[in-house]
Amino acid sequence: MQTHPIAQGNFRYAALADEIQDKILSGQYRAGEKLPSLRKLHSRLGLSISTIHQAYIELEKRGRVEARQKSGFFVKPLEKSPLPLPVKPVTSEPPIRVRINDLAETIVSDLQRPDMIRFGAAVADQELMPLKQLSRIAKSMSVDEICAGMALYDDCAGAMELRYALAKMMMGYAGSAAVDEIITTNGCLEAVNLCLRAVAGPGDVILVESPVFHCFLQLIEDLGMYVIELPGCPEKGMSPDAFESMLSNNRVKACLLNPNFQNPLGSVISTPGKKAVLEIAHRHGTPIIEDDIYGDIFFGPRRPTTFKGLDTTGNVLYCSSFSKTIAPGLRAGWTLPGRFYKRVMRLKLNSQLASPSTGHIVAARFIESGAYERHLRRLRNQIKNQVSAMSIAVAAHFPKDTRITFPQGGMFLWIELNKAIDAMDVFHTARQKGISFMPGIICSTTDRYRHCLRLSCGLSWSDRLEKSIAQLGRIVCALNKE
Amino acid sequence: MQTHPIAQGNFRYAALADEIQDKILSGQYRAGEKLPSLRKLHSRLGLSISTIHQAYIELEKRGRVEARQKSGFFVKPLEKSPLPLPVKPVTSEPPIRVRINDLAETIVSDLQRPDMIRFGAAVADQELMPLKQLSRIAKSMSVDEICAGMALYDDCAGAMELRYALAKMMMGYAGSAAVDEIITTNGCLEAVNLCLRAVAGPGDVILVESPVFHCFLQLIEDLGMYVIELPGCPEKGMSPDAFESMLSNNRVKACLLNPNFQNPLGSVISTPGKKAVLEIAHRHGTPIIEDDIYGDIFFGPRRPTTFKGLDTTGNVLYCSSFSKTIAPGLRAGWTLPGRFYKRVMRLKLNSQLASPSTGHIVAARFIESGAYERHLRRLRNQIKNQVSAMSIAVAAHFPKDTRITFPQGGMFLWIELNKAIDAMDVFHTARQKGISFMPGIICSTTDRYRHCLRLSCGLSWSDRLEKSIAQLGRIVCALNKE
Q1: Interface test with A, best of B131, B135, B150, B459 (most A CBs within 10 A)
Q2: Which residues, in sequence order, are CB contacts of A313 under 8 Å at separation 6+?
Q3: Alpha-carbon span B34 to B11, nearest angstrom
Q4: Which 12-51 residues of chain B touch chain A by CB within 8 A?
Q5: What's the gap in Å between the CA of B438 and the closest CA on chain A?
Q6: Which of A40, A333, B35, B135, CA to CA, is 20 to 30 A from B352?
Q7: Neighbour order of strands in the sheet with A183-186
Q8: What does the pLDDT average to over B396-419?
């Protein structure tokens, strides 16, 4: 047995810790992965068991690994970003009539091609979804139940069983959400659609945080509305002061916000920040549509608060769905439209009468059984690890002047390239290599984010993904030199 | 055995036929019901078998009964209306900003109260729906299929299996409907909603046939559009000449029509009429949204043609669903938006991404198995008989100056009372007695139909329904005298 070079040094444990840390930071050991056992390293490196154990304890102190009882040591996700944060834009434009659909359509159709490595799609990998459990629930429905579900137009407010389960589920974070304040929808986007139409009409100005989820812009365009963008901080989201001055200087009809793990930034507005925003919006008589679809995918110890949970005025229209956490095909979304309840109900009734109930009842039973909470614990860990792996890969393969967000939840990384690079050039080249992602250009009505891109971390990390990020990195590097 | 009085007359068979006919016209013998056998009447009335047989043959000649091989004689539905047809209004107003929602909401919420005899609801009775068969199909879906359906956002155009089945099904009447021309929707109303938004915007004028389905008006109000009403003939629908002059004298952006078994009139625009309308609309560059939801419920020998099937220009946006024929809870609707395909797809994508697929796949398999055609044959007969029974009951219990439609399909009767009567007065009194129906006032933006009402014939006929119609009749008679 040959002695490992670092075995000769003085602080052998520290040198070993450094070596393992390098492997973690280069992505060789991945977040969530188990490190080799003490015995295995002992026989491989010729170091004493106690030296190796000391190295692992050192890595634990540095926040790189965690000990799990009787299981050994595991790589932890990154505790800080390997690259600097994106720069918050300071420019602000007047309200703009939205015209983004044509560009977005080309891009989004590429995101759906199954032959692509899809870093653009905002969904978790199928293998992270509890599909087997859900299908067992679906299979266990009785003939009588199925008949009852098909026989009638369902209550326009939605399946009582789901509303009941949601009311209980949201108790901790969305105020005293009562069953009769909830309206179920065909996914979160329908909820946002109904809420937007309930509070604003064509020609009205909607305030959004920028960069913004492109579907919001597309929806606003379809509704003939205008948009005003408030640039958000990559960590804390929009500042209440900037919000106040926006509302004072513009005739903003409503706000459409994503305060928890904003898509694409991943930012979270703090609880005091949310309270301040609520107070300002209420004072200006401006309703807030809150999209909380990523709120359950938090990486920290606690679920973030919501506008809804802090609101006492009915001014908040809360929207969410299970598309990111359980299964997009269930189309189980909902809204709590506060004082706009009647208008949202009318719009739902007049545009589709009722939602299909089967998928909604499956979701309800999944939550009620307690399985949703257990599933979320696993899902959060997995996505947190994937975000970590993706960050490390980007840091390893992209140019050194790249900036990147360090989200504490959700499933996106927002990447800022050198300002000289047009992410659409990267997009077109990557597309030929079978890789797709979301170019920043469609996250604004301006071309402010032309050098930015969004990567989704929903896919289970693998060597194939690592190689694709390396390839993306090479494309960016080549453009950097031009 | 006592001899029946008519046994002494000269044309005994004719007298017996008259007597049975009276019973049919008064509703004692109902459409679809089997008449007493020759033997039974023989022993009951003391008439010879051949006299009774002759009476039945006479009734067959008069179109009142039909002989079924080895089963006997059955009462046929009415061949002409027991009351005169409603009068076609001639007045015509300029385009009107729609404001109908508040009134409609009160009325519609009453229509849904389960404790009511609901003559207002536009649905067939649960026992007429193939719920058992559908639930068997749902139960037979494999875990893998269910998982696949839940795992992804479905193709925005909708489940391929349903689109395939629809393309085959519509072959006879909707042109060469190809799979990739079809977009599935959450019921017919969502299809109409998407199509309206694809062809027109706020402030635009939509032409409808009057009286009109109140949900169309509510939807148009929500979209901030104006409406212009073209009064339809209770039999033939709107006249192409009147249509031509409407388009020439107004800036009509689109037409929303219900050419087959119009809701509420039950009228059908003939094939030459449809061709003329198509040509006129095309010449004026005005798209036609065609709601064909009642097209499959025809009482005659053949399904009526559709605008879609006769169109060669792509100017027709066809909409339908299985809510009236199979099960409303499946939420299986679809549209063929012709040359507006891309715009409808975009609106669907941006407002809800995808439809839930389970119910749609169940519908697809039901059609593909051939069960839909068999089911329709039964359903048409049943609804035709129910329409007949309802007409007879109205003729028996309503004032003599009542007018009524004689629809050849669909499931409604449109009733015109004496002009002095306000159907809302009838509505409020009937409501206290636990009976609801659709007052005509919400079928127009004007108060042109204040003395009219719509009765749905979806409910299986029974003594209880007969008594409720009698009660309605008494309420109307009492108001007639005031």
Answers
A1: B150
A2: A278, A282, A338, A339
A3: 24
A4: none
A5: 17
A6: B135
A7: A96-97, A226-231, A205-210, A252-257, A288-291, A316-321, A332-336, A183-186
A8: 93
DSSP B34: B
Count of residues for chain A? Answer: 482
Closest C-alpha among B122, B197, B221, B109 to residue B445: B221
Rounded to a whole number of angstroms, the distance from the CA of B150 to the nearest CA of chain A is 4
pTM, full prediction: 0.86
Contact, B319 vs B285, CB < 8 A?
no
From chain B, pick out residues whose CB is under 8 angstroms from the CB of A349.
Answer: 108, 218
Burial class (CB in 10 A: 0-12, 13-18, 19+), B416: buried
C-alpha torsion angle, residues B173, B178, B180, B186 (rounded to 10): 30
CB B46 within 8 A of CB B1: yes
Round to whole Å and give the CA distance between B23 and B320.
39
**Could you tell me if A354 lies within 8 Å of chain B, comparing CB atoms?**
yes
Contact B202 A197 (CB under 8 A): no
Which of A102, A131, A204, A125 has the alpha carbon at shortest distance from A359? A131
Does residue A343 sit in helix, strand or coil? helix
Cβ neighbours of B369 (radius 10 Å): 13
Q: Do A139 and B143 touch (CB under 8 A)?
A: yes
Residue B361's nearest CA partner among A329, A363, A160, A185 is A329
For residues B447 and A366, give the distance between their C-alpha atoms in angstroms, rounded to a whole number: 50
The amino acid sitting at A132 is K
- What's the confidence (pLDDT) of residue B358? 85
* Residue A184 backbone dihedrals phi, psi, to 5 degrees: -80, 155
Phi, psi (5° rounding) for residue A320? -160, 180
**Nearest-CA distance from B266 to chain A in Å?**
22
- Tokens coding A33: 């992965």
Interface confidence, given as ipTM, is 0.82
If residue B445 lies in a helix (H) or strand (E), which one and from where to where?
A: none
CB count within 10 Å of CB A356 equals 27
Place of tokens 């006879």: B172
Domains of chain B: 12-75 (1.10.10.10), 131-371 (3.40.640.10), 373-481 (3.90.1150.10)
Question: Does the CB of B134 have a partner CB in chain A at under 8 Å?
Answer: yes
Enumerate the H helices of A91-142 as residue ranges: 101-111, 131-139
Task: Please give the Cα distance from B81 to B390 (Å, whole number).
Answer: 11
Handedness of CA B305, B308, B309, B310 (dihedral sign): positive
End-to-end CA distance of chain B, in Å? 50
Residues 154-183 of B with CB under 8 A from A: 154
> In this structure, what DSSP letter does residue A208 have?
E
**Element of type H or E holding A276:** helix A271-283
Closest CA in chain A for residue B218: A350
Query: Is B129 part of the contact surface with chain A (CB cutoff 8 Å)?
Result: yes
8 A C-beta contact, residue B302 and residue B172:
no
Phi and psi at residue A379, to the nearest 5°: -60, -45
Tell me the C-alpha to C-alpha distance, in Å, between residue A373 and each of A294, A380, A384, A404, B171: 15, 11, 16, 30, 49
DSSP, residue by residue, A229-257: EEEPBTTTBS-HHHHHHHHHHS-EEEEEE
3-state secondary structure of B454: strand
- The structure tokens listed for B278 are 């198509």
How many angstroms separate the CA atoms of A388 and A390, rounded? 5
Which residue has better confidence, A118 or A477? A477
pLDDT bracket for residue B11 (50, 70, 90)? confident
**How is residue B287 annotated by DSSP?**
-
- Among A154, A190, A218, the residue with its CB nearest the CB of B329 is A154
**Mean pLDDT of all residues in B136-156:** 85
